[in-house]
Amino acid sequence: MNEARLETARLILRPRTIADLDANLAMDLNPAVRRYIYPSPPDPETQRRRLGTQITEGWPARGGLWVVEEKAAPGFLGWCALVPLEKSGFIEIGYRYVPGAWGRGIATEAARRVLDHGFRVLGFDPIVAVANPANAASQNVLGKIGLKRDGTAFHYGQNVAFFRLDAEEFLESLGAA
Fold first, then answer.
1. Theoretical Cys-Cys bridge with 13: which of 52, 66, 119, 148, CB 3.0 to 4.6 Å?
2. Is 155 strand, coil or helix?
3. How many domains does the chain have?
4. 1 Cβ partners below 8 Å, 6+ apart?
5. Is 117 strand, coil or helix?
6. Distance between alpha carbon 92 and the CA centroid of its chain, in Å?
7. Strand residue runs (E) in 39-175
8. HSE (CB half, 13 Å, CA atoms) of 135?
9. CATH code at 113?
10. Which residues pair with 140 in a beta bridge?
11. Would residue 120 count as lying in a domain?
């Protein structure tokens, strides 16, 4: 797992620790948050064990998962990550936030910073993403950070909207190619 601490103008993105377990679990069990992620509510104890194992074993082995907090008001808002996309060979960018963070540009700001780190520091190319086709908000964030819709794919047990961005396109968007 990547242990880098990242920052933006208003956010701190830090590696997840076991101290984040309860906040992460509460977020995952929130019906509004899990609406597009889990077809049925996850079992709380199974989810707690899964999260605890991920944190203590340093998942993901490639990429990273960063807890997102505001500098002005520290506290768990959610996470943004670069993780292997199942058995595809791709690295995907993903994110999950508590409802209080929605609609404030936090997901977009954190994802831009993680995307930059993924391309320029970790050397991933391309970076992809998937989203439930009904999750317009998540797809909107992906568009804002430069990923482009590239059809539909089957991942995580469902047909999902598939997005992709190549490093060259990303760097050109920054004027750094």
1. 66
2. strand
3. 1
4. 15, 58, 59, 60, 61, 63, 64, 65
5. helix
6. 8
7. 64-70, 78-84, 91-97, 127-131, 148-155, 158-165
8. 23
9. 3.40.630.30
10. none
11. yes
Cβ–Cβ under 8 Å, residues 114 and 66? yes
> Phi and psi for 166 in degrees, rounded to 5?
-90, 155
Cα–Cα distance list, 117 to 111, 120, 128, 171 (Å)? 10, 5, 14, 12
Which residue bears the tokens 């292997």? 84
Distance (Å, rounded) from C-alpha 130 to C-alpha 118? 17
Q: What is the Cα gyration radius of the chain?
A: 15
Share of the chain above pLDDT 70, in %: 98
Domain extent at residue 53? 6-174
Give the pLDDT confidence of 101-123 residue by residue, as tens digits: 999 999 999 999 999 999 999 99
Residue 1 lies in a domain: no
Give the whole-angstrom CA distance, residue 39 versus residue 9: 36
Three-state secondary-structure class, residue 138: helix
Q: Write out the two tokens for 62.
A: 């490639």
Residue 45 has pLDDT above 70, yes or no: yes
pLDDT above 60 (res 84): yes
Domain membership of residue 23 (yes or no) is yes
Give the whole-angstrom CA distance, residue 127 versus residue 92: 6
Question: pTM value?
Answer: 0.93
